[in-house]
Amino acid sequence: MRFCTVVNCMDGRVQLPVIKYLLKRFNVDFVDSITEAGPNLILSEQKDHVLVRSILEKLKISVENHNSVGVAIVGHYDCTKNTASKEEQIVHIQKAIQLLRQQYKNLEIIGLWVDENWEVQEIQGT
Fold it and tell me: CB under 8 Å to 54, separation ≥6 — which residues?
């Protein structure tokens, strides 16, 4: 069994599109999901140390126990917690990726944007 991991918003509208995308993208059987409201903002700002630690602890479990082959951090249209524009959220995603890459240098970490049609786009240059 092969796993990847997603750090996704808790918003139910983005769950299935992201999971379907990641199953193909990483060629895995399962996607471990870590959800918070606006996780790209949480990880990019790193102001709420409790939430950052919680996300990182769950990611560690996925990586170490399920041998996750890749990680995605997600931002999306109409996010209640992260009301920033798409362009700003992409910056948040990129900063979140930098943080996660410090922890997991040998793991592929990508960014995803889910648009107003609930279609998933991989962020280029991440």
Answer: 36
What ranges do the domains of the chain cover?
3-122
Structure confidence by residue, pLDDT tens digits, 60-108: 999 999 999 999 999 999 999 999 999 999 999 999 999 999 999 999 9
Say which CATH topology domain 3-122 has. Answer: Beta-carbonic Anhydrase; Chain A (3.40.1050)
Structure tokens at 122: 């991989």
pTM of the model: 0.95
The most distant pair of C-alpha atoms in the chain lies apart, rounded to whole Å, by 37
Could you write out the DSSP letters of every residue in 17-74? HHHHHHHHHTT-SEEEEEEESSHHHHHHH---HHHHHHHHHHHHHHHHHH---EEEEE
Tokens at 24, concatenated: 């193909």
Q: Phi-psi category of 16—alpha, beta or left, where left has phi over 0 and alpha has psi -120 to 50?
A: alpha
The CA–CA distances, whole Å, from 76 to 45, 62, 70, 92 equal 17, 23, 20, 11
Q: How far apart are CA 39 and CA 95, in angstroms?
A: 11
